[in-house]
Design goal:
The protein has 9 helices and 5 strands; from the N terminus they run E-H-H-E-H-H-E-H-H-H-E-H-E-H. The chain has 168 residues and is α/β, with parallel strands linked by helices. The longest helix is centred in the middle third of the chain and has 16 residues, at 79-94. The radius of gyration is 15 Å and the shape is globular. It starts with 7 loop residues before the first strand and ends with a helix.
């Protein structure tokens, strides 16, 4: 990243697991304020396809992203991102261990996973995901395994908090 501060692209799982599990809005407002603050200075971002997945929930999280994170969802309609996405999908279809259903699910236009990795690959970001590597999996292609295949750095929410100095 050439000495520039890291930029982190958030997977859908970061938002959903935080909002629905351990950082509910009513018990951990500091987490959400830190997310908003770091997005405001460009350290944190996500992509339009993650926003679409969040919006399906029609819940408090969707409202929060509309009100506090909306400008930090970047477009995937960028030549570099589209080229990276093509590479990611081609890689997925060449992996013999995954079922055809897993490959098709990963390649679905409304599945943000491949797009998050493609964005990070094209824009030199660190992926933040709550997914756990499962290189022997057959029925689901996991974000960390795709990141590893393309040498895209990835971390989870807790490591993100450590790196950014977020304390609750």
């Amino acid at each position: 990243m050439n000495g520039a501060p890291a930029r982190y692209v958030l997977d859908t799982s970061v938002f959903i697991q935080a909002a629905r599990s351990y950082y509910h809005f009513d018990i951990a407002p500091g987490f959400w304020n830190a997310m908003k603050q770091h997005a405001g200075v460009g350290t944190l971002l996500s992509i339009d396809r993650v926003k679409h997945e969040i919006d399906k929930g029609k819940d408090e999280l969707a409202g929060w992203t509309d009100n506090h994170f909306h400008d930090s969802f970047e477009s995937t309609k960028d030549a570099g991102v589209l080229a990276a996405y093509k590479k990611v999908i081609q890689w997925a279809y060449k992996q013999p261990q995954y079922t055809n259903a897993a490959k098709d699910e990963f390649a679905r236009a409304d599945n943000a996973d491949a797009w998050v990795v493609a964005y990070a690959l094209a824009k030199r970001c660190v992926v933040v995901t709550q997914e756990v590597s499962a290189p022997q999996a057959k029925s689901k292609i996991k974000v960390p395994d795709v990141c590893r295949a393309f040498s895209v750095p990835y971390i989870d929410t807790f490591e993100l908090m450590r790196r950014l100095g977020i304390k609750l």
